[in-house]
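notes to self, project folder thing:

trying the whole complex as one job this time. last attempt i did each chain seperately and stitching them together was a nightmare. two parts in total, labels are on each line so i dont mix them up again. if this works i'll redo the older ones the same way
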Amino acid sequence: MGTGISVNRITARRRHPLARYAVLLLALGLVGGAYTTFVLPQTQSADAAVASGKADDVTEGAKLFAAHCSSCHGLQAQGTENGPTLVGVGAASVDFQVSSGRMPAANPGPQVPRKPPADWVTPDKIRQLSAYVQSLGGGPTVPGKEQVDPALGDPAKGGELFRANCISCHNWVGAGGALTQGKYAPNLNQSTPEQIYEAMITGPQAMPVFNDSTITPEQKRDMIAYIVGVREQTDPGGFGLGRIGPVTEGLVAWIVGLSALALAAIWITAKKRQANHD
Amino acid sequence: MTIDSVPKPVAGASGFIDDRLGAGNFLRRNLRKVFPDHWSFLLGEIALYSFVILLLTGTFLTFWFKPSMGHVVYDGSYEPLKGVLMSEAYASSLHISFEVRGGLLMRQIHHWAALLFIGGMMVHMLRVFFTGAYRKPRELNWIIGVLLLTLALAEGLTGYSLPDDLLSGAGLRITQGVAISLPLVGSYVSFFLFGGEYPGEDVISRFYTLHILLIPGILLALISAHMILMWVQKHTQMPGKGRTNENVVGGPFYPSFMIKAGAYFLFTFGTLAGLGAFAQINPIWLFGPYTPADISAGSQPDFYMGFLEGALRIMPAWEINFLGYTLPLSVIIPALVPMGIIMTGLALYPFLEQWVTGDRREHHIADRPRNNPHRTSIGFAAITFYGILWLLGANDEIAANFHLSLFQITWVGRFAIFLGPALAYMITYRTCLGLQRKDAEVLSHGVESGVIKRLPHGEFIEIHVPPAEDIAAHMRGKEPVPMIAAGPDDGGIPPKDLRNPIGRLRAKMSQAYGGEKIPVEDGHGHDGHDGHELGQGEDHAAVGSGGDNRSISH
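result (full assembly):
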């Protein structure tokens, strides 16, 4: 009898509406746990080996290049029909593309989007890859820490340069904008100061190059100071509505403002005054 | 002292005023004026109350705003613009935003109120249109409304330009582009408006005068005329029990309507204050000062100008060069044609409808939109036309935020602007007829009671009960859309004024537009196959009536 009851109890619990979720959670936890236990340590140990090794950056970079880049850019970085040559693009270009997750590209399209970097990407590997590409034919180099430090720039001067040179594609606050043929100027909210600097000197994808004779390194730092300063600023007027201007404002005016007032009108006319009360 | 007797100080004072102004008589007559009670009749008040708030907040802003394009170096508290050369107008707008106590809130309420002012006018106008409330004797008030809407656009445009920030400068540049594209007079108009070459030093102070004096003055006068006419002509009312063309059923102005209107003002004020406090609008400090050399991605006008922006964006780059003169069709057409179609169409519609239907009677009972299907379809076609242009005014933001191709959106828009309204017309027309059939069905068969009965021979039927009295009265308020008597007389000769081509067209349009499409009481629009009129509460086969598919074959 007792066993019968307990069996019934288990059956009842199995049929509980929440049971399936509990089982699902358990299964997910098991798989995730197994993954972190068995798979991740290998990659971590591989990283550690690379980091500790005093191996020549260029040699290591060549290996990384052969493994991750050569299928599109060619074994000698000479370029194929799927990807341009990387001779002469410089370390700055590699650092920009790989650290922003654009390269290696997931699939061809009008424009390669920013995405979380691939699992193997670490600062050391980017340095090695950059060193290899730099060794192929020179080009712009990765800026130093001081060169991109927003604290050292003059945001007001940078703002004027930003408005004159950048906002026609990237919008006032770097919220991004559409370009022709499915291309777009990305928003600058996640770009690091280094990436902003590198983008200006290398001109990735649809972007033009702003070399040091057009905009001096100091001016570039001023612009970085403006971009970083404005994007970190708290909106004094309330919710920023994406800071893209009148489009979202118009939507709010209709969806929030006018809808609320229409509902209010319905509400206050809902109670009818009875004629026989008069 | 009973509750009905008036205390002496009050009676004395009011008697004094009454003897001199005759106010008592006036108030007695007007305080009891009856206002009908339907939520959609309050929509116009959004615009009215927003206008009041615009006047108040606008006055506040004028205390600090400097309408000057004189150059100054910014030395205010907004760090990222410190030391930047800008106009006094922009610097004073920043001053209002950052240094004047409550200034940013007032600026934001002012701007939100501007959006709700025009949005409120638009929904109010749609209500008047779809219920046919513009019909005789209210055509003139309708035209005043169209003028108000047009002036409100101009008021918005001039106000949008005043802070002299980079975004408003983009709008100003397009305004100048439109002015200079006008044939023959274009360059003169542009030079006159800007006092010389664009942008010059005059336009802000000129727009300021227009924005705070001339246009609001006209708006105020027209709004007063609008209200007085409404008061004198009385409000229309929805069809219903006891409502005729000769009466108005509703609550008296005092106290019932006054309380509702007062509450609605507070709702409007509350909504605007809430938006102004919590939703940032027109953050001019992010845009930077205007220089004609700079332009930003995502430059947009405020929503009410969006349809013109969209027209400009989808227009192919056409221009005509003739004897050394250029006619930029790519600017003139989008600037003038959509605005012309919409505003002229609105202004003329009451008269065109009169001409087509031949209906010169007074109307005080509103139409339900379904009961004049062609008017409703024309309305929806116009909304679609406007809406597509409006949407395409944001084609770059749509492309950037939804990862679509800008060119594809533009090309879709170029076709949709012609196909969309036609499609909307057809869909709306069928929907209206469907709703009319539904009404007819409710009136002739009653509504489902939820009671299923099984008959002795096994058939299941659902008991239908007659609709509630007020709903039935509302539905029975329908009358056929009038049309002109176009048919030939006994001798086969059409009326004299319908014999020429225009007359024949008028007769054809009248036949299509007017008439009763779905009579209310003939068994939900059937061709008599239904056979019998159902009495009150009569059983009606709904389920398993075998072979007879009448309940689904409309």
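what i see at first glance: Chain A touches chain B through 62 residues (CB under 8 Å).
need to look closer tmrw
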